[in-house]
Amino acid sequence: MSENKSGLLAGLRVIEMSHVMAAPTCGMMLADMGADVIKVERVPGGDGVRRNAPHIDGYSAPFTMMNRNKRGFAVNTKTPEGLATLRRLIGGADIFIENYRPGAMDHYGIGYGDLKADFPALVYCSLSGFGKGGPLGQQGGFDLVAQGMSGLMSYTGEGAGRPPVKVGSPVTDITAGILAAMSILGAIVQRGQTGKGQSVETSLFEAGIALSYWQSAIHLASGEIPGAMGSAHPLMAPYQAFQTSDGWINVGAASQATWEGLVKCLDDPALGKDPRFVDNLGRMKHLDELVADLTERFVKKSTDDWLALLEEYDVPAGPVLDVKQMAVHPQTTARNMIRDVPGGDRPDMKAIGHPVKFSESHTEIMRPAPRLGEHSREVLLEGGFSEDEADALITAGAVHQD
Question: Which one in 59, 244, 263, 296 has a CA-CA gap of 20 to 30 Å to 179?
Answer without folding.
Answer: 59
